[in-house]
Amino acid sequence: MNLLRHYAPNRPLMKDDHFNELIASIKEAGKIQRGEAEAFRLHEFPEPDVKAIREGIGFSQVKFAALIGVNVRTLQNWEQGHRHPTGPAKVLLRLVQADPHSVVKNLPACYP
Fold first, then answer.
1. Quick one: residue 69, left, alpha or beta (phi over 0 = left, psi -120 to 50 = alpha)?
2. Is 110 within 8 Å of 61 (Cβ atoms)?
3. Are 69 and 20 in contact (CB under 8 A)?
4. pLDDT recorded at residue 55
5. What gap in Å lies between CA 74 and CA 82, rounded to an integer?
6. Tens digit of each residue's pLDDT (9 = 90 or more) over 13-36
7. Please, which pLDDT band fits residue 4 given cuts at 50, 70 and 90?
8. CA-closest candidate to residue 57, choices 10, 106, 96, 2
9. What pLDDT was estimated at residue 7?
10. Distance CA 59, CA 70 (A)
11. Where do the H-state alpha helices sit in 1-112?
């Protein structure tokens, strides 16, 4: 019995070539994780200049920290280079840099 058909009867099945590509990439990821292979595609992004982003939109440290949902001390550590934003914070900083008006408009609860 096809489990996908059982649990999602109205969804189209994945094409065989897409499924095989997915399985191959999962196996490759396992080899990379175990150190048996090297990743051949690395995506590195430069560290965001947090202070320049904040000053670029004219926010104080308190206001900017509230906007992006971090402690003011965390923001200060980023700006001074003691620590670096990671994961979602890094993405949010890139969004603020690219389109600050949209971020402020869509995060009104955080905007003092």
1. left
2. no
3. no
4. 96
5. 9
6. 667 788 888 888 899 989 988 999
7. low
8. 96
9. 57
10. 14
11. 3-7, 16-34, 50-56, 61-68, 72-80, 87-98, 100-106
| Average pLDDT of span 85-97 | 92
Q: What is the residue whose two structure tokens read 């869509």?
A: 106
Q: What residue has token string 């440290």?
A: 61
Which tokens hold the place of 37?
Answer: 């292979």
CB environment 72-99: b (16+ within 10 A), e (fewer): eebbebbbeeeeebeeebbebbeebbee
> What is the token pair recorded at 85?
């934003």
Q: Which residue do the tokens 């982003």 mark?
A: 53
pLDDT in tens, 56-89: 999 999 999 999 999 999 999 999 999 999 989 9
